[in-house]
Design goal:
Elements (H helix, E strand, L loop, with lengths): L7 E6 L10 H19 L3 E8 L4 H10 L3 H18 L6 E4 L3 H16 L3 E11 L4 E2 L5 E4 L8 E2 L16 E5 L7 E10 L5 H10 L5 H10 L8 E2 L1 E3 L13 E3 L1 H20 L4 H4 L10 E7 L3 H15 L6 E5 L2 E3 L2 E2 L10 H5 L4 H11 L7 E3 L1 H21 L20 H7 L1 H9 L3 H22 L1 H6 L5 H22 L4 H10 L31 H11 L11 E2 L8 E2 L11 H5 L8 H5 L3 E11 L7 E6 L5 E6 L7 H4 L3 E5 L5 E3 L2 E3 L2 E2 L1 E2 L8 E2 L14
Parallel strand pairs: 1-2, 1-13, 2-3, 13-14, 15-17
Antiparallel strand pairs: 4-5, 4-9, 6-7, 6-8, 9-10, 11-12, 15-16, 18-19, 20-21, 20-23, 21-22, 23-26, 24-25, 27-28
Helix pairs in contact: 2-3, 4-7, 4-9, 11-12, 11-15, 12-15, 12-17, 13-17, 14-15, 15-17, 17-18
């Protein structure tokens, strides 16, 4: 029988560790979660998105020692950095806490007492690796060696990334401390364990039959862990250790993986305290065993073990609600390879924000995320081509091509006949919503972009630029066509609002006010004023990608460090050198001095026009030429042979807006007739040919003056 209660959804992302900055790999998860949350809120559900910094452990303690400050000072600084990075990428938490909080200490104690009450805690001596140089027992992640099961080298002390086996650090072959490089000593110390084998039956049933896990994850757990007795879970660490001391075991501290997931509860408790609720409103079960709310955990596949065995065991022992869904994603690769500092592909969130628009990464990730556990590849050429074609060329351009004609009149008083375009996209709303619900954002984006293609085809067929030139007799038709275009744009903005919240805000500013509900995609707007058009998105340029990679590579020891300020709005880094200062190199001008003076009459003979590249291909028999087909607006097309081969990938050029010499006499070449010239910069001081692009909002056919 269906549950009659309204949906109440609690959503978490894995807690980022407070020992490092956020990078693009982390952002796969936080952007994915934020999209899901924004979608659910747009649908009108009661949703709370919670997260926190994971603050405890040996790594924090060691780093604080090295920097000569307290762990709390270190944690506070990293919290500020994390929150700034998340805000830059428009990841909006309802509450962001810390595992080093009073609420987390208290709730750890409550779960601990529940485990004790069920006689699930035992004590025994453990042979543990000790770093004699650092003077600490080594946490699992601070030991590397050879896997004792498959013999894979360079594996951490808790599990093998190659075969998935788990083991104790002391079982590693040829272990080395990652803190000091010393060979660890084996010492004995008392540890406390949770005997989760007592909950084996529950865990087998929950992982295999609850529906909370992707079938591949359920099968993985069945094949690697649940087919044999479950190992006891080591949940304590001896001093010295930065964390919470266990109340009934002085000198022992809860291991970071014990108090980290409890941070979900603590963040909920803190949010409830600020909003007049109770923890039980979200984490309790009713007498029939139903949870008080849906609980969705978003995690990476590297921490499945903790979230699908240990964490549900803790919740079950405490009588708390179990996760409705554990949504597991894969790893991020860049250009098909593991992120690498030497290649410049280990990219920090802050470095990206210094160079590029965060909306572009949000869209690219969404277009790649299918809701499964497969790895996601950030191919930078594909990234450039896709976001330019979809966000700039299809969505933003739909408004930029038509909004200006509605500024004096506003939208038509009644919605014009559009051949069924708006109704067709409205009918697809539930399919798009179902894809969002399933986490298959890639499918949602495909449906949305198909609607965008239909909308742009309508504009191309109606040719409003010709209507604008036809005079007063065509004014009514121009308003009708532009009203259809702007309504289709706003409809797309509703569907894209979970992915592109900034674009949704801009769409609301342009016409119709803030987008607050998914249902706004179902009904067109009429008779409303239209604000002055403001450019909505700008293209990603290859030069910006190169600058991003360069900034992400380790600096050479002799390389001077530039003094920069950062911005969270995208775009090039802001420096302390004013634009237009005398620091620009003189080499290009020296190599090619200024030409002789010309008159304004000479200049006006050259007809420079904005054009859009609609096709690009290599000329196989030419060393330097690419064959480009450019649109000058409407049905006017030109073929241009451009000497840019080797500097530009044809696939990344399609959809790009460029400048062409439109009245150049056609030239017959052996490869075909060239009907113009693409304007580009080149010369001494730089290796490359750099195409010139106008500002966003410039339309094909516009003349440069």
């Amino acid at each position: 029988m269906p549950d009659p209660r309204p949906r109440r959804i609690l959503v978490t992302s894995a807690l980022p560790y407070a020992n490092g900055h956020i990078h693009l790999g982390h952002l796969v998860e936080y952007i994915q979660t934020d999209i899901f949350v924004r979608f659910q809120k747009l649908r009108g559900h009661a949703v709370v998105y919670l997260c926190a910094d994971d603050t405890h452990g040996t790594a924090i303690m060691i780093r604080a020692r090295a920097e000569g400050r307290s762990e709390q000072e270190l944690v506070a600084d990293m919290r500020a950095a994390h929150l700034a990075d998340f805000a830059g990428f428009q990841v909006a938490f309802d509450h962001y806490g810390s595992t080093d909080s009073d609420a987390n200490r208290r709730l750890c104690g409550e779960l601990w007492r529940a485990l004790r009450a069920k006689d699930l805690v035992v004590s025994r001596e453990v042979r543990q690796l000790y770093d004699p140089e650092a003077g600490v027992f080594l946490a699992d992640r601070f030991v590397k060696g050879t896997c004792p099961k498959c013999r894979a080298a360079d594996q951490y002390g808790d599990s093998c990334e190659q075969c998935g086996a788990t083991y104790a650090p002391a079982e590693l072959i040829d272990p080395v401390s990652t803190l000091s490089g010393a060979v660890p000593e084996v010492r004995s110390a008392e540890h406390l364990f949770v005997t989760i084998e007592a909950l084996h039956g529950f865990l087998a049933d929950w992982t295999q039959a609850s529906g909370a896990l992707d079938p591949r994850i359920a099968n993985y757990l069945a094949g690697h862990f649940l087919g044999e007795p479950l190992r006891d879970w080591d949940v304590s660490r001896p001093a010295p250790y930065f964390g919470f001391e266990i109340p009934d075991a002085p000198g022992h501290f809860w291991y970071v993986w014990f108090d980290a997931p409890v941070g979900y509860l603590a963040a909920t408790d803190e949010w409830c305290a600020a909003h007049g609720g109770r923890l039980d409103d979200w984490w309790s079960r009713d007498p029939a065993g139903r949870p008080a709310a849906e609980i969705h955990h978003f995690i990476g596949k590297d921490i499945v073990y903790f979230h699908t065995l240990f964490w549900p065991a803790m919740l079950e022992a405490a009588g708390l609600a179990l996760p409705t869904k554990v949504r597991v994603h894969g790893f991020l690769t860049v250009n098909g390879q593991k992120m690498s500092k030497s290649r410049g592909t280990f990219i920090l969130a802050r470095t990206y924000l210094d160079h590029l628009d965060p909306a572009m990464l949000r869209y690219y990730y969404a277009a790649k995320l299918s809701g499964g556990i497969d790895d996601l590849d950030l191919n930078l050429e594909e990234f450039t081509a896709k976001v330019n074609a979809d966000i700039v060329g299809k969505v933003a351009n739909l408004a930029s091509r038509t909004a200006r004609w509605l500024e004096p009149t506003g939208l038509a008083a009644t919605y014009p006949d559009d051949g069924g375009l708006f109704a067709a996209a409205a009918a697809e709303g539930e399919a798009i919503a179902a894809a969002y619900e399933a986490g298959d954002f890639a499918r949602a984006m495909r449906i949305v972009m198909q609607a965008a293609d239909r909308a742009n085809a309508y504009i191309d067929a109606e040719q409003p630029w010709k209507l604008a030139k036809a005079g007063p007799e065509a004014a009514g038709r121009l308003q009708a066509v532009a009203s259809v275009a702007l309504n289709l744009f706003r409809q797309l903005a509703v569907y894209l609002a979970p992915v592109l919240p900034r674009l949704a805000q801009q769409a609301g500013d342009l016409v119709g006010g803030p987008i607050r509900s998914w249902d706004e995609s179902a009904t067109p707007l009429v008779g409303l004023p239209v604000a002055a058009f403001v450019p909505l998105a700008r293209r990603v340029e290859p030069a910006a990608i190169e600058a991003l990679l360069a900034a992400s590579r380790p600096a050479e020891p002799s390389e001077p460090i530039s003094k920069t300020r950062t911005t969270t709005q995208g775009g090039p880094p802001m420096t302390d050198t004013p634009q237009g200062s005398a620091t620009d190199p003189a080499t290009p001008l020296e190599a090619e001095p200024l030409a002789a003076e010309c008159t304004i009459d000479d200049f006006t003979k050259v007809d420079l026009r904005v054009a859009r590249i609609v096709a690009a291909e290599e000329v196989a028999e030419a060393k330097k030429l690419l064959k480009l087909t450019v649109s000058l607006g409407g049905d006017v097309r030109r073929t241009v042979f451009a000497g840019i081969k080797g500097f530009h990938d044809p696939a990344t050029l399609v959809g790009r807006v460029v400048v062409v010499v439109a009245n150049l006499a056609p030239r017959q070449m052996k490869f075909g007739l060239s009907e113009g010239m693409v304007v580009a910069a080149s010369g001494a001081g730089a290796e490359g040919v750099f195409l010139l692009s106008p500002d966003s909002g410039a339309l094909p056919g516009m003349r440069l003056r």
